Every structure is written in C-alpha cells, then in structure tokens.
Amino acid sequence: MASQSAQRTAPRAPRRVAIVGGNRIPFARSNGPYAKASNQDMLTAAVDGLVARHGLAGERLGEVVAGAVLKHSRDFNLTRETVLGTRLDPTTPAYDIQQACGTGLEAAILVANKIALGQVDAGIAGGVDSASDAPIAVSEGLRRTLLAANRARSAGERAKALAGLRPAHLVPAIPENVEPRTGLSMGEHMALTAAQWGITREAQDELAAASHQHLAAAYERGFFDYLVTPYLGVSRDTNLRPDSSVEKLSTLKPAFGKGDGATMTAGNSTPLTDGASAVLLASEEWAAEHRLTPLAWFVDAETAAVDYVHGHEGLLMAPAYAVPRLLARNGLTLQDFDFYEIHEAFAATVLTTLKAWEDPDFCRERLGLEAPLGSIDRSRLNVNGSSLAAGHPFAATGGRIVASLAKQLKEAGGGRGLISICAAGGQGVVAILEA
Amino acid sequence: MTKEITLDGAPDLRRIYATAALRRGNDSDTLPDVRYSRAGIRVDVDDLVAYSRVCRFPVTGALPSTYLHLVAFPLQMQVMSGDRFPLPLLGAVHVENRIEATRPVGVDEPLDVSVWAQDLRPHRRGRQVDLVSEASVRGETVWRGISTYLSRGTEHADTESSDPPSTEQLASVGAGPLWLLAEGTGRSYAAVSGDWNPIHVHALTARPLGFPTAIAHGMYSYARVLASLGPRLPASGLTSRVWFRKPVRLPSTVRLRTAFERSRTLSVLENATGEIEHAVVENSW
C-alpha cells in the first residue's frame, strides 16, 4: 500500500506546451468602430474566431483564462460568461485574471503551466480591453451615502443618510491612466525614465516609424491572414499608418515631459485602443489527436516587479530585471534569440530597456551581473510591428504578441524568440518561445 | 406578372401605422401580385449593438438571424399596408414565423431584400397570410423568413390548423432561464426595431385594441430564445420556427425550457408557473 501511495504523489515530468494558434480582432483606436462593443462582445468574437479556425466547436477545453484591465464590476465572471457565449462546450471552465498590461501573457503562462503539469491538456489564454466602453463608477461620496441609506432600518434613518448627499457627489469617477501611489500617468513616468537614460526624440521616432512599416508589410504579405478575424467591418488595425516616417513623426508636439527635454509624442506612444486576442495552447498529444500542427513551444516565463514609488527605479523597467533571471535559468544569453518582441508601450520603453541591458553599471549594480547582457541585433526586433502601430488594448497585447511570435518562428522554420512586456504597478512579464 | 417595386430607403413605419387605422381590408381572396425590394442595404453597427443589447445577443459581427427579420420588416409593412391588400394591418396578429439561415451574415455585407405575400388562406378564427422575406448577398440567398399573420374575422372552424410540435418531451425538463420582462419591454424593443405598434407600447394604447396591458413583441420573445440558445445552434443551415401562442402581458416573468437533441432543439417559453404557453420554438439543422 505504501508504495502505491508513493506512486500517486510522485511528481510527473513536465510536458512540452504547444502554441497551436492564435486569433484576434483588428485593434481599433478608442471611440472608433468598436466604441459600443463591450469587453464580453470582443472577447467572444476573438475566442469564437479561434474556435472556428481550429474546429473546436463543441469541444470541452481544460480551461479558458483571460482578463481585462478596465473592467466593469458586472463583469466579475467575464471569461466564463464569454465561454458560455461561444461555441465551446459550455462545460469548459474559465477564470479571470488581471495583471495590467501583462494580463494576456500571464494568462498564457498560467494555461501553459497547467498543461506542462498535466492538469489540463488544452486551453485558451486571452485578453480584452475597451478604452471606449469604460466602466464609470459613482463618486466615493455617493457610493458611501447610498450604502448608508441601504443599511438604514427606518425611513427616518434613510432620509438622514440621503441628506448627506452633496452636489459634488454626483460627479462620476472615471478610470484614469494614473499610478495610484505616485499620481503620475504612465507617460509621465516614462518621460522621467527616458530623460534619465538620455533617450532621444529621433531614436523614438525611428522605432515608431519602423513599427508602422513592419506591421504594414506583415499585413501585405498575408502574415495576419490566420491570426486576425475582421470585426464590425474592420479588417486591419485602425492605428496603422503604413506611410509613417520619421519626418512626419518629427512634426508632432511632445505629449509627456516638460521643456526642451520632452521627447515623447502621441506618435511614439501607444494610443488608447479597443481589442481582444486569444491563443490556443495544448499538449503535444492533444494537438496531434486534433490534427493540429503546433506553431511553436512555450518554453519558460518569468515575472519581475520594481520599486518605482519613490523613484528608486523607473515604472516600466521591470522586464529589464525579469529577462536576465529567465536567461540564467535557461542557460541562455541575450544574443541567443532569433526574434525579440519587446512591447512598445512607448518607443522610449523599448529603447530604455535595450540601453539598460547594454549598460555595465546598471547590469552590475541593479541586476548583479558581472558583465552587461549586451546589445541585440535590432533587425530582429518587433519584425512584424508592435504596439505603436497595432495599438495597445491593455490585456489583449500579450495574446497578440504570443500568437505573432509563434507564427513568425514557424515561418522562419524554427528558432527562439523572447517576449518582454511591461505593466502598470512596476511589473514585467517575459517569456521564451521556440519552434 | 409580378409587379416589382424597388425602394431607395426603408418605408417610414410611423407613417404606415398612422394611416393603417383607416384601412379595413377587403373581401378579396387574392393577394396583389407585388414584390417590394431594397438593394444594397447596409446595417448600421450602432443599430445592431442597440438591438443586441435589448435581445441579449453578443456583438460578434455576425447578424442574429432575427435581425434580418428586422431589416425586412418595413417592407412587410409596406406590402400589408397596400390599398388592395385584403387583410387590415392594424389588429393583424403574428402567429407563426419561420427562418432559414443558410450561412452567417456579416454586419459589413450589403444586403438585397425582397418581400412579398403569399398563400392567403382561411384560419379557424379568420384568415391568414404568409409574408415571405428573402435576403441575399451578391446574388446568393443567405436568409429566408416566412411570417404568418392572422386577421380575425369570419371563423372557419373546420380549417386544418398548423399546430406546433408536441411539447410532451419537455415534461422532464424541469429548469431553464427565468426572465423578468419589465413593463417597458415593448418600448425598449420598439426603439430598436421601429415597430411602434400601439399594442406593444403602453397599456393605454393597447386597451383600445383589446389588450388589458401592453404585450411583448413576439419577435422580441423569439429573439431572446434564440440568443439564449445561440452557441448551441449551428451558424449555418439552421431552420428555426416559432409558434406564438398566448401573448406575454407586460410586466411578466417568463421561463424558457428546452430539450436538446442531436440536430434539433425544442423550447417552450411559458409563464413562471407553467400554466400559460407563450411560444414554442423549434430549431433543426
């Protein structure tokens, strides 16, 4: 008996996790064509497109994990409600997560880990955000007053509670893109870091122009034919400007930072965007049983966080810390990659991260490394465009990047790719894919 | 020879209802041989979203099959409000509807829609007629709807009736969604469908037409049923039928019970106690 119970508790060897496919709706600038679509609508469209493309109608998956950063309180069970509106078997479990802009990639990590451990055989990781159909809450004063009135046991008590209402209470609370502990917007935070690292306007505009040109070229060669499903009459990301150039971008006025040192504009920062994405992950066996060919393998992932509140580190610098830990664990150097997907929250974020990895002092003092990680071959960076061109519906960006990189690796006939995504709250999520 | 009339825009339903009270129908037992069409109709995304919210469809970019009924509805009213149309428009009751959804239709596809009346025939309680609507995209028929309207009048007791399928198999289905339909449900649906028939709007406008309260639009109840069954039904090759039984008086609490078979569902929408059958819906593929 003892040996049997020992058998039962023996850990199983982890399994390889396949990225089988991905689907997203085209991303659209906020208050545009998706202005009235809800998070649930868009996530349903993204998941149903994935289901249709991979013949999963009626299939019970191990789980669906997704989230939204801007979420209505009524959407507490957003992902499960979405599953019930798709063609997946309604007995497919689901749960919501939220890790700011890291949500989509974190969802993929969670599903991948369960597959690796043999807890599920296949699952969908997704994310969605609408900056248009955003939740608006009643003011804190009105909320407290209404709760007090609700607690009241008599009409008199209720009247007394409601008498506390002030005109100012009627002003609604609208979500802000501001760090609660610093009161600074993400752009203002980034502007501080960019100035500290001496990131130039020209370098940022070059990166932004390249993002647009790469994304446009990827659409032209049909790269997104199996990754994007048109939605509400939109077939390409509406933020994409194929004719973007450094010259055009250089005419824009700074949007963040102050004075002559202000380098960040609306052109080299991501716009508020609506959109959704979903990625299908599975064990090798499940993929084979369903006659689906994996695009790539989900190898490993790491998350990091930085202490940004009192200025010890830049808000969006956490990936700079996560990547070396991931490299060390996998016995890799920064140069061992064929493709790099560094999320372009701002052009300056990408440039600062790259510069930090090249900086001996930063790598020694902050990362505890004897030598800097070094430079990367910039021709391998965001080869099919990234968030500056596609837009950035917060929780949907991870799924966009995982699916695009997996397809790129497949197209290249194999290779290794690195994903790096920064997130609000001073966090970073990074991962390695291989094909 | 069928008279083909192509309209540039949707007929104004308010004008049709405003003048409908003056038309009493006639004794003719033939239907005017006329077909109304509109070409290249573009669905407005905002309208679709508003409709989807009221009927609880997700906005996936494909048109709910009942939404195409809405697109064709003004043409139906145009046919039925014609001078030579034998049945009076006001007081006509939607008793049955059939939808054949060949394939999903995207919100950005241009629609050509034709509507005509056929099969004027006796009903136990009067006369009934079928309004046939056909939607096509670039020459391909993608959707067909047949709406059967009854006009109460001379009774024809010996007429064979088109009864819904037996709901006996639903006896074992104990549970299903329960919906609270508010007093203003008819106005909400009128706002997104344009169907401001006074029997749906308010008790005060419904009473002169013989209803003690406003009643829910049949196509609203039917749409709610299809939205609820939505992902369990195929997107292509679906035939959906509804038999409208007793009207849903507003406000009301209704319950949906459904039996699922391999290539068929059978549902009944009834009041909360199960004593009143409001609609029977059968989907097959």
Automatic annotation (TrEMBL), chain A:
One GO cellular component term of this record is: cytosol
Alphabetical list of SUPFAM superfamilies matching this protein: Thiolase-like
- The highest taxon in the source lineage is Bacteria
Keywords, sorted A to Z: Acyltransferase, Transferase
- Note one Pfam family from the annotation: Thiolase_C
Q: Can you give the residue ranges of the Thiolase C-terminal domain?
A: 293-434
The Thiolase N-terminal domain covers which part of the protein? Answer: 17-285
Active-site residues are 101, 392, 422
One MF annotation (Gene Ontology) recorded for this entry: acyltransferase activity, transferring groups other than amino-acyl groups
Which protein family is it in? Belongs to the thiolase-like superfamily. Thiolase family.
UniProt-listed NCBIfam families: AcCoA-C-Actrans (TIGR01930), PRK09268.1 (NF006740)
Q: What name appears for this protein in its UniProt entry?
A: Acetyl-CoA acetyltransferase
Q: Which organism is it from?
A: Terrabacter aerolatus
Q: Species lineage, top-down?
A: Bacteria, Bacillati, Actinomycetota, Actinomycetes, Micrococcales
Q: What is the gene called? A: atoB
From TrEMBL, chain B:
- Protein family per UniProt: Belongs to the enoyl-CoA hydratase/isomerase family.
Which InterPro entries does this UniProt record tie to the protein? Fatty_acid_synthase, HotDog_dom_sf, MaoC-like_dom
Q: Name one GO biological process term.
A: fatty acid biosynthetic process
Species? Terrabacter aerolatus
Q: Which Gene3D superfamilies match?
A: Hotdog Thioesterase
Q: What is this protein called?
A: MaoC-like domain-containing protein
- In terms of superkingdom, the source organism counts as Bacteria
Residues in MaoC-like domain copies: 185-266
**Gene Ontology CC, one term:** fatty acid synthase complex
Named from the GO MF annotations, one term is: fatty acid synthase activity
What's a Pfam family in this record?
A: MaoC_dehydratas
